[in-house]
Amino acid sequence: MANIKQQEKRVRIASRQRAENLRYRSTVKTLMRRLETAVEDGNAEAIAAQHRELVRWLDKAASRGALHANTAARRKAQAARLAGSTAVKADEKKTAAKKPAARKKTAAKPAS
């Protein structure tokens, strides 16, 4: 145990900072799980809202030092990939329902 006043103060401060960093990391994990659940449900509005909130928390955590900047960037990329995959699936369903337009055939140019 610290026996100098300043050391005791640093122990208190470090404990408070550790708890704050844990809160950020835990919240980011929770928001990632919520995004995955929204993706499984397939609700586009919920996916967009969860993705926005997750990115906001990742940026906050990185700016305050709770997460390394590269870790935050990697998780944002994972979240974008996850959110984007459902958007692609939804677009595929929409385009599969529509018939593709017939392509116009162009006459071959005569050789000169």
List the topology elements.
Layout: H1 5-41, H2 44-64, H3 69-97
Helix pairs in contact: 1-2, 1-3, 2-3
Give the key terms.
single chain; 112 residues; mainly alpha; Methane Monooxygenase Hydroxylase, Chain G, domain 1; 3 helices; 78% helix; elongated
Q: In sequence order, what are the helices and strands, one letter per element?
A: HHH
Give the C-alpha Rg. 25 Å
- How many DSSP-defined strands? 0
Strand count, sense and barrel status of the largest sheet are: none
Global mean pLDDT: 87
The dominant shape is elongated
End-to-end Cα distance, whole Å, is: 95 Å
Strand content: under 5%
Return the CATH class.
Mainly Alpha
Number of structurally distinct domains = 1
Structural class: mainly alpha
If helices are DSSP runs of H or I spanning 4 or more residues, what is the number of helices?
3
Give the gist of this structure:
The protein is an all-alpha fold and 112 residues long.
Describe the fold and architecture:
The protein has 3 helices and no strands. With 112 residues, the protein is mainly alpha-helical. The chain has one domain (5-94): Ribosomal protein S20 (Methane Monooxygenase Hydroxylase, Chain G, domain 1, Up-down Bundle). Helix 1 packs antiparallel against helix 2 (44-64), helix 1 (5-41) packs parallel to helix 3 and helix 2 (44-64) packs antiparallel against helix 3 (69-97). The longest helix is centred in the first third of the chain and has 37 residues, at 5-41. The protein is elongated, with a radius of gyration of 25 Å. The mean pLDDT is 87.
